[in-house]
């Protein structure tokens, strides 16, 4: 399960994976992936990873509490908050051909391995049973334009990916008391 750093961990995992994949485009001076808020335009060939929306996954709502297993003291924890992370992946710098190659390579990475789990995960997700599912989000040109308008930048060719389900652990833990004895009360027998 993920602690409060899980969102940053997912972003770092994506950047590292894309950076590794982009090395095949130019062994001498490969483009790189970088986490960005899109404030500054990169000067060299770069694939920016911009987290533009975080939402709760509606399909994972109303899950039951998580109970601890013996021999640990009995506790009940609120279920983790299931998050959807939406990313804008945008090529910058270089020429148009390089930018298109960066987009193509990113598409290959997310398509060929659409579910990342196990040793592919680092940070708070390392060693967990978590799995990140990547889906290319089908947005209309209007929807894409609104995203760029919201961040006050001119529209650029980009990919919109949704990552689900990122579980954020709750800190709401209740200690459960064991039943040690019981008393039955009620009407007396004649």
Automatic annotation (TrEMBL):
<dbReference type="InterPro" id="IPR025351">
    <property type="entry name" value="Pvc16_N"/>
</dbReference>
<dbReference type="Pfam" id="PF14065">
    <property type="entry name" value="Pvc16_N"/>
</dbReference>
<protein>
    <recommendedName>
        <fullName>Pvc16 N-terminal domain-containing protein</fullName>
    </recommendedName>
</protein>
<feature type="domain" description="Pvc16 N-terminal">
    <location>
        <begin position="9"/>
        <end position="174"/>
    </location>
</feature>
<feature type="compositionally biased region" description="Pro residues">
    <location>
        <begin position="67"/>
        <end position="77"/>
    </location>
</feature>
<feature type="region of interest" description="Disordered">
    <location>
        <begin position="58"/>
        <end position="78"/>
    </location>
</feature>
């Amino acid at each position: 399960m993920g602690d409060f750093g899980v969102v940053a961990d997912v972003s770092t995992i994506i950047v590292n994976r894309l950076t590794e994949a982009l090395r095949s485009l130019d062994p001498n001076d490969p483009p790189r992936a970088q986490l960005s808020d899109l404030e500054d335009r990169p000067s060299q060939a770069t694939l920016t990873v911009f987290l533009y929306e975080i939402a709760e996954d509606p399909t994972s709502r109303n899950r039951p509490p998580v109970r601890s297993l013996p021999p640990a003291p009995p506790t009940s924890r609120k279920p983790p908050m299931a998050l959807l992370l939406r990313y804008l992946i945008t090529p910058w710098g270089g020429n148009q051909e390089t930018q298109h190659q960066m987009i193509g390579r990113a598409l290959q990475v997310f398509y060929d391995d659409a579910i990342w789990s196990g040793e592919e995960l680092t940070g708070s997700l390392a060693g967990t049973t978590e799995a990140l599912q990547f889906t290319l989000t089908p947005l209309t040109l209007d929807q894409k334009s609104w995203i760029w308008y919201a961040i006050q930048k001119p529209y650029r060719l980009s990919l919109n990916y949704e990552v689900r389900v990122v579980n954020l652990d709750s800190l709401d833990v209740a200690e459960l008391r064991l039943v040690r004895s019981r008393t039955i009360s009620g009407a007396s027998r004649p």
